[in-house]
């Protein structure tokens, strides 16, 4: 197996790099529109224009900052070692030896252990992997919860979540064949623990698979994990956290306890069972990926049940993952974000991002109060408000939704203040609001 130590010793182009003598001369691809389908406009020039416009994306939780030179230097080191020049595959459990030597399981193990520590998982009791996306991580969390709960009780659980949960939760609930118990929300959009308690009492014969959201998609609400756990006392349950965006930056703030596995008041007490965090949101990783982290003890129990369904002898271990072949390049690349220097930069980004969210909220309250701007808590980087003109929605790629506010359906938009949304970008946005908008009736 190729280890970090071994490949970091390689120099120059590396023994596995593609030789320039093996590639055709003048391999400069020019898009030939005559070869494209008539309905498709192929233009690298159009793609290049996005580099000058990317910082205007305010409506979706994507960090559009260009990654550091250190990240691209790391990529070159990986390339020099042959990673991403021929087939690599992280099939199976990254904490087991693989029958396929061309893998990056060692990088994957290390980044899971480092991020597990960041989220407060106990040393020696951490398991996880780098998934294809946040939805993939949620799928594994919900499948693990369903498997464990059915294994313990012989009964399929019911899935508990709110209408504010990400739409992928509804898809995954359907995919897993689970009955939904929809929980009411508090005024800020977070799960109502009292309604959860009542719904649990109404369904005593089924275990509970609860999916809590740390940072709801449109409003930025945070489900109260500790109050949810209080409601779950006495019930057989599995609590999975969808912390796609907020789980990226909260560990670097004074609010790290929101996503901590261990209770701050009682470290022996677990606050949840598994967590999903997106890599392409706050971190700015350049392609979709996700962290899935749970305890090794949960995984071992799950894998014993999983082995009754899927035990492929030819890969030399029970994989413990839903997907079989897994991307081996992403874990090696994302390993960069677990390094001390990258963590320092993430902490800096988290601080400035929340400061800019405060700035935007204050300015909108001061100058655009008629848009009814709302930031539901001090941990959120999301401000939602009455929908402005279509021109502004299009320029800044704003997400829009109809919300029921005071028993009236009204169309709203939101800004998600990501690291690229600095004061200059936010000032331009508000200048456009000032030019474009008249008070709404």
UniProtKB/TrEMBL annotation:
Cited PROSITE patterns: PROKAR_LIPOPROTEIN (PS51257), TAT (PS51318)
Keywords: Decarboxylase, Lyase, Pyridoxal phosphate
GO biological process, one term: carboxylic acid metabolic process
InterPro entries tied to this protein: Group_II_Decarboxylase, PyrdxlP-dep_de-COase, PyrdxlP-dep_Trfase, PyrdxlP-dep_Trfase_major, TAT_signal
N6-(pyridoxal phosphate)lysine modifications at: 281
SUPFAM superfamilies per UniProt: PLP-dependent transferases
Family classification: Belongs to the group II decarboxylase family.
Protein name: L-histidine carboxy-lyase (Histamine-forming)
Organism phylogeny: Bacteria, Pseudomonadati, Pseudomonadota, Gammaproteobacteria, Methylococcales
């Amino acid at each position: 197996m190729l280890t970090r130590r071994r490949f970091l010793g390689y120099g120059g182009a590396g023994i596995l790099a593609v030789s320039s003598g093996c590639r055709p001369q003048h391999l400069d691809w020019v898009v030939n529109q005559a070869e494209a389908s008539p309905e498709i406009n192929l233009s690298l020039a159009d793609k290049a224009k996005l580099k000058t416009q990317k910082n205007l994306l305010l409506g979706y939780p994507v960090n559009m900052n260009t990654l550091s030179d250190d990240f691209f230097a790391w990529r070159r080191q990986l390339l020099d070692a042959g990673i991403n020049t021929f087939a690599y595959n992280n099939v199976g459990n990254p904490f087991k030896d693989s029958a396929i030597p061309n893998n990056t399981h060692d990088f994957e193990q290390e980044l899971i252990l480092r991020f597990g520590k960041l989220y407060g998982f106990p040393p020696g009791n951490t398991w996880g992997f780098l998934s294809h996306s946040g939805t993939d991580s949620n799928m594994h969390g919900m499948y693990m919860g369903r498997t464990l709960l059915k294994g313990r009780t012989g009964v399929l659980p019911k899935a508990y979540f709110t209408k504010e949960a990400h739409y992928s939760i509804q898809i995954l609930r359907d995919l897993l064949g689970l009955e939904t118990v929809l929980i009411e929300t508090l005024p800020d959009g977070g799960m109502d623990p009292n309604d959860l308690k009542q719904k649990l009492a109404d369904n005593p014969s089924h275990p509970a698979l609860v999916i809590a959201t740390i940072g709801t998609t449109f409003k930025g609400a945070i489900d109260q994990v500790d109050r949810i756990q209080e409601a779950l006392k006495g019930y057989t349950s599995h609590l999975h956290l969808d912390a796609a965006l907020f789980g990226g930056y909260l560990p670097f703030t004074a609010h790290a306890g929101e996503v901590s596995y261990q209770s701050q008041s009682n470290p022996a007490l677990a606050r949840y069972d598994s967590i999903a965090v997106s890599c392409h949101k706050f971190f700015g990783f350049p392609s979709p990926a996700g962290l899935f982290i749970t305890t090794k003890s949960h995984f071992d129990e799950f894998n014993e049940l999983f082995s009754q369904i899927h035990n492929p002898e030819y890969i030399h271990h029970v994989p413990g993952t839903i997907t079989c072949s897994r991307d081996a390049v992403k874990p090696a690349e994302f390993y960069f974000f677990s390094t001390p220097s990258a963590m320092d930069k993430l902490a800096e980004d988290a601080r400035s991002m929340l400061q800019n969210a405060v700035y935007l909220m204050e300015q909108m309250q001061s100058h655009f109060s008629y848009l009814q701007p709302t930031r539901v808590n001090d941990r959120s980087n999301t401000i939602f408000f009455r929908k402005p003109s279509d021109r502004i929605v299009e320029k800044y790629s704003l997400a829009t939704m109809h919300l029921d506010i005071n028993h009236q359906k009204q169309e709203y938009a939101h800004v998600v203040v990501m690291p690229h949304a600095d004061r200059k970008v936010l000032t331009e946005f508000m200048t456009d609001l000032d030019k474009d908008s008249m008070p709404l009736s």
